[in-house]
Amino acid sequence: MKHITQWISKWKEFRSKREAIYFGTTLYDELTINPIPSLLLILGTVLFFVYSLPYAFYLGKFFYWFVGVLEITKVLKIPFLDELRYYHYLSAFVYFYIAVSLLIDISRLLNKWNTRTVFVKNEIWQIQKFGLGKKLNKFDLNTEGLQLGFEHGGLIDYLGWNRLVWEKNGKTTFATPYFFPYKKNKIIINRILKR
Q1: pLDDT > 90 fraction of the chain, expressed in percent and rounded
Q2: Which of 188, 190, 191, 195 lies closest to 30 in space, CA to CA?
Q3: Domain segments of the chain: what residues?
């Protein structure tokens, strides 16, 4: 057990040194994000796939009915379009296509929601996973015309759906992921709002 705690402490020390080198300072504050919306989205996606998979064959019956209504088989005179089993192959392909496109959209949304937000001096650094690497976006808080919006209050505080949103000329320039306004995050918010 002693060796494991030593390895963990060495790993934490190595990581803190790497981050200090990356940010150029040890004086930075990281916003702790709320993982609940991401977990709910993942759970909803899994439930959607689990409960919709048994009904995928209805797509084949729909395609068979649709081709029959349009009388495509009579016009094109293709005999295999009269057999239902070929439409099951088509329905499997369509279901697979919908599933892949939904997974791509959800992964993009999760990447947006799980952006690492770090406050360094008068800048905000947002670090996203991008392909096989990372993407860094820097925003200067002293930019003219930049307006800060803080979405908070009531039930939003308890659910952890708070966000800081910066706008310029009515368009959202950048926003933080969802977070709870407690503990360390409260200190960061007070510093940004200068209160």
Answers
A1: 5
A2: 188
A3: 23-34+115-193, 56-111
**Predicted confidence band at 75 (pLDDT cuts at 50, 70, 90)?**
low
Q: Would you list the DSSP string of 86-127?
A: HHHHHHHHHHHHHHHHHHHHHHHHHHHHT-EEEEETTEEEEE
DSSP letter at 176 equals -
Half-sphere exposure of 101 (CA within 13 A, CB side): 6
Alpha-carbon distance of 126 to 23, in angstroms, equals 12
What DSSP state is assigned to residue 25? S
Separation between Cα atoms, residue 34 and residue 122, nearest integer Å: 24
Closest CA to 149 of 121, 128, 170: 170
Position of tokens 């057990």?
A: 1
| Alpha-carbon gap, residue 46 to 49, rounded angstroms | 5
Q: Are 89 and 81 in contact (CB under 8 A)?
A: no
Q: What is the pLDDT of residues 4-41, one digit of tens each?
A: 888 888 888 887 777 777 666 666 788 888 888 889 99
Amino acid at 91: S
Q: Which residues pair with 117 in a beta bridge?
A: 126
Strands across the sheet containing 116-120: 28-30, 116-120, 123-130, 133-140
Looking at residue 105, what is its pLDDT? 92
